[in-house]
Amino acid sequence: MREGCKDHSEPIREWARSRQLGAFPRRDMADVRVDQLLVRLGHPEVYVHQGNCEHLFTFSDVRLLNPTDPLRLSVYPFHTAISQNQTIYCTTCAEFGAKWIVTGCSRVPFDPAFFCETCFKLYLYKDGKKICDFKAYCYRGNEINLLKPNS
Fold it and tell me: 28 Cβ partners below 8 Å, 6+ apart?
């Protein structure tokens, strides 16, 4: 790990240890090659850096070379598909991923507007009470809960 960086995986590894879920070793990515990883096919993995930037990826296929495969190691691993899902950022701070969709709000120039948790609470609430009329929906990427607005 680079000097001055924080190990963001420690609380997760401690949580897993306390529940006897097994060992989750941490290694410096500069010292690890893909062929040294323990791969679980079809299982989503996450690479986290800078504390809040997450990259989801899945190993979907492992096989032996066939005659049409390139022989240069520099082309591996190669993508077979790249997800079209992109993070939608908060329209207020543009720093964090959206957690809320807000509609019908007179304080916001966009309808709908996307908010991170912090901006949602700081901009639309005071002392835990709404400061204007709006509807808010929990936002989870492509999965949206439209049945239960947070009025």
Answer: 1
